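Re: the multi-chain job from yesterday

Posting the exact lines I submitted so nobody has to dig through the queue logs.
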Amino acid sequence: DAKTTQPNSMESNEEEPVHLPCNHSTISGTDYIHWYRQLPSQGPEYVIHGLTSNVNNRMASLAIAEDRKSSTLILHRATLRDAAVYYCILRDVEGQNYGQNFVFGPGTRLSVLP
Amino acid sequence: GAVVSQHPSWVICKSGTSVKIECRSLDFQATTMFWYRQFPKQSLMLMATSNEGSKATYEQGVEKDKFLINHASLTLSTLTVTSAHPEDSSFYICSAIQDREADTQYFGPGTRLTVL
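And the result, structure tokens for all chains:
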């Protein structure tokens, strides 16, 4: 899978929006952009995914740059429960890694301040 | 959404005993499941790939005779830690492929194993 780069950590105040960036300059045309998060002592949780267009769901929004070399996960109103490690992962659905395990980098550790 | 469960959520055992961890896909069929291990402050590391009806594929450095994996049905994979030792204490997490189009996977809540 193509490599992604995320900041190690970010802080946000409760009830404010949070924008979590991810750079993926080597993304291929068939790479889906996935975001997962891991709360303390829990397994990773699916957040959202997209290919080219921006995506919204009940948890978050995903904004994808026009050239697809970067994306931003948007939490519209951060709560204390959103404190977690957020992972940005690319999945090449036509590549040799399709259907294979996820490779987790360090992700971004989000702290939410009350 | 797709749900993957694990049982037990935590287990404490004595050194030398065996522990079985179950991973179930509750509302979808999973021909492939993955087992990860996560030590404190570290990221998830793949241990093995579990394929329904066939032998598991283990990552380099993971002892297949120690970590027995059985994927007997499309909704159940089990990981048995045999003759557990304190160094096997860790957080074990399984995942399953649900969305074949986007290759989305769903993860279980994890099992905390403590070996005394």
